Amino acid sequence: MINVTKSYLCNKTKFLSYVDCIYASGWLTNHGPLVSELEDRLRDYLGVRNIILTNNGTLALQIAYRALDLSGSAITTPFSFVATTSSLQWERIRPIFADIDKATWNLDPLAIEAMIDSDTQAIVATHVFGNACDVESIARVAERHRLKVIYDGAPAFGVRYQGESVLNRGDLSTLSFHATKLFHTIEGGAIVTNDDALAARIRLLCNFGIVDTDLIEGIGINAKLNEFAAAMGLCILDDMALILEQREDIARRYEDQLGDHVDLQKQQPHSQRNHSYFPIGLASESQLLRCRAALNAKGINPRRYFYPSLDTLGYLQPQTPQIHSRALSRRVLCLPIYPGLPRHVQDNVIETLLAEVSVRSQRQTAAFWPQANVTDWMEHRFSLPSPDCKRIS
Ligand SMILES: *Cc1c(COP(=O)(O)O)cnc(C)c1O
């Protein structure tokens, strides 16, 4: 089975040489030498001031909210991985959704402002599929309403915006180093901030609030990364140039061959790309399901990221339906992209999709609007109340 991604495994001999170091030192966790080295190298590689490693990206979000003392509610995006929302709810901060921009698929700054209420203390936005948010507009909204800004930067590893790391925006940014991500430590994550005092507070929060052997300062939790995980990270960091090059190659071939037939996420101006995902927007959910079935039949397993739209989660208080997010989540499919994806498999993905996408226009035109010519059908389709039928462009 060809999956949407495949965990990158570094050179085994190199990894085992780090394991030898761990055996030699006997230091397995609690901010050991490999975690320190990985923090130093990531600080340089990403171009950030402070980076604190954690044992996953979800806890990184939860600790970020704690570090900023958040309560009340936070405006967030319905089009993201579920952890962006669940981490808020877990910390008893009420998520309030604002809709996304139809083109960039990121939280729409204008929509944010409309949803702010007297309890709102923060904005939690995701750089969706590594595409930088409109960080300037979000900063202006936050300033006007005295809100904190947290970026879920899990998909934005290495992304630069206007020449510097996009992770430097907002009060805090978080990362995930889960095995399926562009860069990983098997399980892991990080919090990034420009504020040294906040960074010190985060370090305490990640280690039970322990200052030293005799002093505990406030409540904390265990979010420590272990040395074996850091070893994997150090090895993979050596390979990043190669990983990015291969992903770019695959992305370019998809773009060239599918770009005229499906919707692609519009890049935020000045946002660099890391090709952590290759999402396509199909014309409708039924087309998406047909494409997925056709690919599955060939042993290829694309994924619906992000589905369902998070404003439909059953465990939340009733939410205002976020129309663009709901429509988009029904028709976005992420295609396989990872170093080592065989070219013939990618060709197979492309051919299968092209066959489905072209068959569809004929079949549906005939089935739904037998009397209408194509132009009438197009007009009718755009005026349908169901967002399912709208092509977002
Ligand atoms: C992966 C991911 C997370 C969660 O990170 P984990 O390390 O799996 O806990 C959160 N938000 C987004 C957008 C992600 O892609």
Overall description:
By secondary structure, the protein is an alpha/beta fold. The chain folds into two domains: 2-238, 3-Layer(aba) Sandwich (Aspartate Aminotransferase, domain 2); 243-367, Aspartate Aminotransferase, domain 1 (Alpha-Beta Complex), CATH 3.90.1150. Helix content is 42%, strand content 14%. The chain has 13 helices and 15 strands. A seven-stranded mixed β-sheet has the order 2-10-9-6-5-3-4, with helices on both faces. A two-stranded parallel ribbon has the order 1-14. The longest helix is centred in the C-terminal third of the chain and has 26 residues, at 343-368. The radius of gyration is 22 Å and the shape is globular. It starts with a strand and ends in a 10-residue tail after the last helix. Residues 362-393 have low confidence and may be disordered.
Quickly count the domains: 2
Tally of DSSP β-strands: 15
| Count of DSSP H/I helices | 13
| Strand fraction | 5-15%
Q: What is the CATH topology of the largest domain?
A: Aspartate Aminotransferase, domain 2
Whole-Å distance between the termini? 32 Å
**How much helix is in the residues?**
40-55%
CATH class of the largest domain: Alpha Beta
Order of helices and strands: EHHEHEHEHEHEEEEEHEEHHEHEHEHH
Say which CATH homologous superfamily of the largest domain is assigned: Type I PLP-dependent aspartate aminotransferase-like (Major domain)
What's the short version?
The chain is of the alpha/beta class and 393 residues long. The chain is 42% helix and 14% strand. It contains 13 helices and 15 strands.
